[in-house]
Amino acid sequence: MPYLTDSADVRDAAELIELFGDDAGIEAAARADASRNLGNHLHFCRWRQIERLILLLAQDRALGTRH
Predict the structure, then answer these.
(1) Rg (CA), the chain
(2) Reported confidence tier of residue 63, pLDDT bands at 50, 70, 90
(3) Which bin fits 64, alpha (ψ -120 to 50), beta or left (φ > 0)?
(4) Helix, strand or coil, per DSSP, at residue 60
(5) In the prediction, which pLDDT does 65 show?
(6) Where are the domains of the chain?
(7) DSSP string of 6-48, one letter each residue
(8) Residue 62 DSSP label
(9) pLDDT confidence band for 48 (50 / 70 / 90)
(10) pTM of the full structure
(11) 40 pLDDT exceeds 90?
């Protein structure tokens, strides 16, 4: 499960989905890799979590427990 720090992470995930469609996760991974290459570990971790969120949103069924 992704760890989200604030609503901006959800907004960025939704924006990537809107712009890149099925390739949104790939774009988030590319942004994470670019951040890592620049030595920015905070943005690397953030984009990896957004990538995980995008993959989670793409599922057609509920994951985890339901109440």
Answers:
(1) 12
(2) confident
(3) left
(4) coil
(5) 77
(6) 7-57
(7) SHHHHHHHHHHHHHHGGGHHHHHHHHHHHHHHTT-HHHHHHHH
(8) -
(9) very high
(10) 0.88
(11) yes
